[in-house]
Amino acid sequence: MVRRVSSARRSDAVVKIAIQGEPGSNSHMATEQMLGKVSLVPCALSVEVFEKLARTHEADAAVLPVENSLHGAVADHSDLILQHGVIIVAELSLRIRHALMAAPGVSLADVRSVLSHPVALSQCRRFFARHPRIQAVPFYDTAGAVKHLMATREKDAAAIAAPHAAHVYGADILARDLEDDPLNFTRFFLLARPEDAERLRPAGAAVDKMSLAFDLRHQPGSLVEALRRLAAEGADLTRIESRPVPGKPWEYIFFVDLRLPEPAAADRILATLRPVCAHVTELGRYAAHSLSSPQVN
């Protein structure tokens, strides 16, 4: 199950959470599943999320997508987590459902264009194949597309977004479950400033997962040796991704997620990696979220 931050652990009456996107987006849904009702700080861009969390402190925490089961990692989000020194305190895997919605009075027969985020549009190809008269129009955000249509009241346009967006903006749902693959999940991180990490960590969460970033010395077998040491500590490598180092052509940072055999293994893993890595940075320890949770059924 998803454990929420309990009210006893909050020092403020209202927790402000920065998200990329508008109310009604999948990020909004992930936030409510992890934290319950909070005050949203919507941001158009990822960099704005980190600006409001790490620099201006306009947000107490942030909820950000980091990986989709069909499209892979949101690459620059790993870079931004490392760059801004924030801490991962929880994760959530959210089942992604796409619905077609429009302003009241608009029917499917009226629709000639559909607005949504490019990734959402690409996950609904069968719908567009069945309706060749309808044009897919990229938009900056799924829920933002619904918000736009409700403001303009276009009579020949619709949007693809999570069903929750229809409730938020008062749109009518014309069709549900448009996604080509029902096993479509997006993984979200709950991020906090280091000084707030324990306050915002979900109550009762058992730490059994850790995220790290490390770069290696240029010598044969360095990555193999790092992975061997992780295996020797019983760590289950669930994700590995390499990202280029800005200003250092052809040098890379490895981002890894590990399932831990026990909480104490986290410190041993850091200690065993340091001798074979140029730098090791812990990004966070948290409870792994299982896809068997009730919210994905």
TrEMBL record:
Its EC number is 4.2.1.51. One of its GO terms (biological process) is L-phenylalanine biosynthetic process. Residues 16-193 form the Prephenate dehydratase domain. It catalyses: prephenate + H(+) = 3-phenylpyruvate + CO2 + H2O. Residues 211-288 form the ACT domain. Gene3D superfamilies: 3.30.70.260, Periplasmic binding protein-like II. The record marks 186 as: Essential for prephenate dehydratase activity. It is an enzyme of class 4 (lyase). Keywords: Amino-acid biosynthesis, Aromatic amino acid biosynthesis, Lyase, Phenylalanine biosynthesis. GO terms for cellular component: cytoplasm. This is Prephenate dehydratase. It comes from Terriglobus roseus (strain DSM 18391 / NRRL B-41598 / KBS 63). The gene is pheA.
